[in-house]
Automatic annotation (TrEMBL):
One cellular-component annotation, GO: endoplasmic reticulum
UniProt keyword list: Dioxygenase, Iron, Metal-binding, Oxidoreductase, Signal
Xref: Gene3D superfamilies: q2cbj1_9rhob like domain
A Pfam family that the UniProt record links to this protein: 2OG-FeII_Oxy_3
Superkingdom of source: Eukaryota
Identification of the protein by name: 2OG-Fe(II) oxygenase family oxidoreductase
Signal peptide segment: 1-21
Cross-referenced InterPro entries: P4HA-like, Pro_4_hyd_alph, Pro_4_hyd_alph_FE2OG_OXY
GO MF, any single term: procollagen-proline 4-dioxygenase activity
Species, as recorded: Apodospora peruviana
Cofactor: L-ascorbate
Amino acid sequence: MFSYIVGFLAFLLFFYNPISQFLTPGTSQIRRTPLPQINWDLLAIESNETRLGDASASRCPPDSYSIHVFSREPLVIYIEKFLSPDERGHLLQISDPLYEPATITHDGGDSAQHDTTVRDSEVAVVPRTDVVRCIEDRARALQGWRDEVWIERLRVQRYGPGGHYNHHFDWSSGRGGWGRVSSFMVWVDDSDGQLQGGGTEFPLLRYRQDSRWCRFIDCRASQAGPADSSDGKADSAPTTSSAVIFKPIAGNAVYWENFRSDGTGRGYDETWHAGLPVEKEVKVGLNIWSWGRID
């Protein structure tokens, strides 16, 4: 009898992981496919001149940003002074004549639709000037120069009063182990601090109960006021919303990972986000997306 018990335990130890993955939905590993056919014109291809270690890489000014880890799962990093004032001015100048109405696509498809009820903004795919290439290099370096991951062409977004982008994912799927692996939301212009509204909201990201974050997130919106009780009296403690709203502060940025690093290829629900309506003045933002192999 003892030998049967030992044999059964050995069987469980050996086959537990495959059986658990089979019985538990959503935990299967990525079925990788070769690199799919893509439009390389939409990617900021890294040239030999800009690769790490080449002397010409020193053409870019030294980085002067500072980072704060907001969340580890998913990885969300707040970045102070990601863009310099000169870089911001350059982006505003080169994007101004290029704006077109922003469109939306479904599941990464080729068909684009213009629907201001969902997305009301203008977008400009900016040329790869020397300044833009330095911003690309900075975004690539922050991610550790990952293999088979490319920076997409940079897009500047402009939101006038009422401009917004409803809740959405930057990733659509992780088919074959390839997709939009990460995102930067960078604020280029906040109308000299006169901008009202226009925050970037993550309703499923856990709110950090620490007043030091109130420099970067809208704590008044995340921390709801006293709620009315059934007898008409205010409750003694305020209710807390799970929503996190990052303030659109010019030069600063938020970076996040879109896919889990557990080999399943699943996206993070917590990256569901929106560009809230601008109430006053104009907001200009910069999207930096990275596309490639999901780890």
